[in-house]
Amino acid sequence: MALLEVSNLDVRFALRQGDVKALRDVSFTLDRGERLGIVGESGAGKSVAAFTILNLIAKPGYIADGSIRFDGRELTTMKPRQLQQIRGNKVSMIFQDPMMTLNPVLTIGEQMIECLKAHRRIRRRDAREIALNKLHQVYIPSPERRLDQYPHELSGGMRQRIIIAIALLLDPDVIVADEPTTALDVTIQAEIMELLLELCEKHNVALILITHDLGVVSQVTQRMLVMYAGRVIEQGPTREIINDAEHPYTQGLINALPQMATPGQRLNQIPGSMPSLANTPPGCAFHPRCSFSVDANGERRRDCREVIPTFVRSGNCDVACHMVRELVERHSPEHDASDNGPSEKREAL
């Protein structure tokens, strides 16, 4: 049994003009110690998925349908007091901006001790000792002095290390990291991600990494989900998706990386922009931006325009694309089992 199971999750925001569907039929699993990446453009639903796991979506947001099971327990029906035993204790979260997470009027030590005392019956002296130990684990220099400092006295990289230390305070089973390096420069980003990877491997902690940086995902995660307009459109082993993406949107994300462009030429880009969740196109939400949805006559394929694609198995990945389904069904089982099957399907695209 997986440590975390999300099944057919629908999340909506109740607005005056009607409900806006932020997540649609999202399903994935996470095993103990596994590292999962969730990628996509801004507005794809990545952060909503992360917040929903911990039931942190505020009104008018609500879970309309689906199931979230952690270690066999259903989270969507838990009462607040029961959920508090999971949130922060078994599942911790690292947010984008450490200055928004840390209380500016409390010292680092006070905040860490307060976190421990909220979940455990523990003496203040013992809580301070645990906090000091966690600062050592994230390689904070002079940790004794840092405990008595305020957040504004620390650099951005140091504050993010503090946030990671707080996330590890209660020895969680899962850490959800929502773009943890967005506010940092490139050098510090690499250090923070290397630290996070080291700690997860050392303590066998599962990680859900939400990011738009495919380079980070390829280095840190074992599996990945690609999201678009509130849906998962491709999922599978990270290395397989990065090396041989099947969905046109995933291919577009990879081709948009700077290293994929010819030196001196304009960067590759996906035409158009992410649709508003209040006005998502019918059928495949990506079809207005997808060159593969255009038939030989220069018109959009009817199935792309009208039918929401379901997942089809291609290699070790699940892909929601009508074109990929046609190519998979066109190939014989013998061809699919061959080593060059996925590459040939990609060339056909």
From TrEMBL:
PANTHER family: DIPEPTIDE TRANSPORT ATP-BINDING PROTEIN DPPD, OLIGOPEPTIDE TRANSPORT ATP-BINDING PROTEIN APPD
Record's bilayer topology term: Peripheral membrane protein
Cell compartment(s), UniProt: Cell inner membrane
CDD domains: ABC_NikE_OppD_transporters
Matches recorded under InterPro entries: AAA+_ATPase (IPR003593), ABC_Ni/Peptide_Import (IPR050388), ABC_transporter-like_ATP-bd (IPR003439), ABC_transporter-like_CS (IPR017871), Oligopep_ABC_C (IPR013563), P-loop_NTPase (IPR027417)
EC identifiers of the protein: 7.4.2.9
Chief location of this protein within or outside the cell: membrane
PROSITE patterns noted in UniProt: ABC_TRANSPORTER_1, ABC_TRANSPORTER_2
GO biological process: peptide transport; transmembrane transport
Descriptive protein name: ABC-type dipeptide transporter
Enzyme class, broadest EC rank: translocase
Single GO molecular function: ATP binding
UniProt KW keywords: ATP-binding, Cell membrane, Membrane, Nucleotide-binding, Transport
Reactions catalysed: a dipeptide(out) + ATP + H2O = a dipeptide(in) + ADP + phosphate + H(+)
Annotated family: Belongs to the ABC transporter superfamily.
Domain ABC transporter: 6-254
GO cellular component: plasma membrane
Keyword rRNA processing carried by entry: no
